[in-house]
Specification:
Length: 83
């Protein structure tokens, strides 16, 4: 059993904690990248207004329409990085 009062044990515990944090960060970054891959913009014709606009390839609405891009998912990811 390690004793954090000993410098070597405290250092090992700090390294283990840092490595776990690094792994969590890498996993979160990979998950965000996968979400962004799904929620890409694509050009579509909006027949209501008669012109093209970008919609999200990953979002559809209950009424069968596409979600305007940037969709709520992308906006939430983009806003999440602000402090």
């Amino acid at each position: 059993m390690s004793d954090p009062t000993y410098p070597a044990d405290a250092y090992r515990q700090a390294c283990d904690t840092a490595n776990r944090a690094k792994d969590l960060l890498e996993n979160a970054e990979a998950a965000i990248a996968r979400v962004r891959e799904i929620h890409q913009p694509i050009d579509a014709l909006n027949v209501t207004i008669g012109k093209g606009q970008q919609v999200c390839t990953g979002c559809g609405k209950d009424d069968g329409n596409w979600e305007i891009w940037p969709c709520p998912t992308i906006r939430a990811l983009d806003e999440g990085g602000r402090l």
